[in-house]
From TrEMBL:
Official protein name in the record: DUF4136 domain-containing protein
Top-level division of the source organism's lineage: Bacteria
Transmembrane segments: none
Species: Rufibacter roseus
High-level lineage: Bacteria, Pseudomonadati, Bacteroidota, Cytophagia, Cytophagales
Occurrences of domain DUF4136 (ranges): 32-182
Signal peptide: 1-25
Keywords for this protein: Signal
Length: 197
């Protein structure tokens, strides 16, 4: 009897933990916006824009971890890191406080991308929307190096509110959440890997 009561308490505790983690995730906002002029099917290489806003050692460490996770994710998608004239420049910033930002109401990126292999001057108008992001928002922006303009941005909130936290799992999950919305592989990469296998 005592054993079954203990198992019952354990089951209730696990359900409560599971429910609280679901509720916590539900409060997180994430999304992405894109430029209709982005040449997404042509980008092959990338590099990072350096951040000069490192205030303390904890912040520096978090930015190094973010850079590592972003680089790994882009390389998984076939992009190559390049010091010389990269196609894409990657900017990333972690906002610790609440943030009001502007996004755009657009067709899903995947759907738009299949219809538009080449950038076009004719496109639907941008429909700006105001968004309120809670503490710990990670914003990643991809810039077309040649054209010198942003072509895609992804964001997720509720990442990390404490600058001194050493838990990198939150940062890894944030990067995955953002890049799950940028499902673009380097041109020819899938063909190359299928031939190699």
């Amino acid at each position: 009897m005592k054993k079954s009561y203990t198992l019952f308490k354990l089951a209730i505790l696990l359900m409560a933990c599971g429910l609280s983690s679901c509720l916590g995730f539900g409060n997180r906002k994430f999304g992405s916006d894109y430029s209709y002029k982005g040449a997404f099917h042509k980008y092959k290489t990338f590099n990072f824009i350096t951040h000069a806003s490192a205030e303390d050692s904890a912040t520096i460490q978090q930015y190094q971890v973010l850079k590592k996770f972003i680089r790994e994710r882009l390389e998984i998608q076939g992009y190559e890191y390049s010091e010389k004239k990269p196609d894409l420049l990657v900017s990333y910033y972690l906002y610790y406080n609440d943030l009001k930002m502007k996004g755009y109401e657009q067709e899903e990126f995947d759907i738009w991308l299949t219809k538009n292999e080449e950038p076009s001057e004719e496109h639907e108008p941008y429909r700006p929307v105001k968004m309120y992001m809670s503490q710990g928002t990670l914003l990643v922006t991809l810039l077309d190096h040649k054209k010198q303009n942003a072509v895609w941005q992804g964001y997720t909130s509720g990442v990390l509110a404490d600058r001194s936290s050493e838990n990198t799992a939150y940062l890894n999950r944030a990067v995955r959440t953002i890049f799950d919305q940028y499902r673009v592989f380097r041109k020819g990469y899938l063909r190359e890997t299928s031939h190699a296998n």
